[in-house]
Amino acid sequence: MNETLPPCPECSSAYTYEMGALLVCPECGHEWSPAASGDAATGTSEDSVIKDSVGNVLTDGDTVTVVKTLKVKGSPTGIKAGTKVRNIRLVNGTDGHDIDCKIDGFGAMQLKSSVVRKA
Question: Where is the Protein YjdM N-terminal domain (predicted)?
Answer without folding.
Answer: 4-33
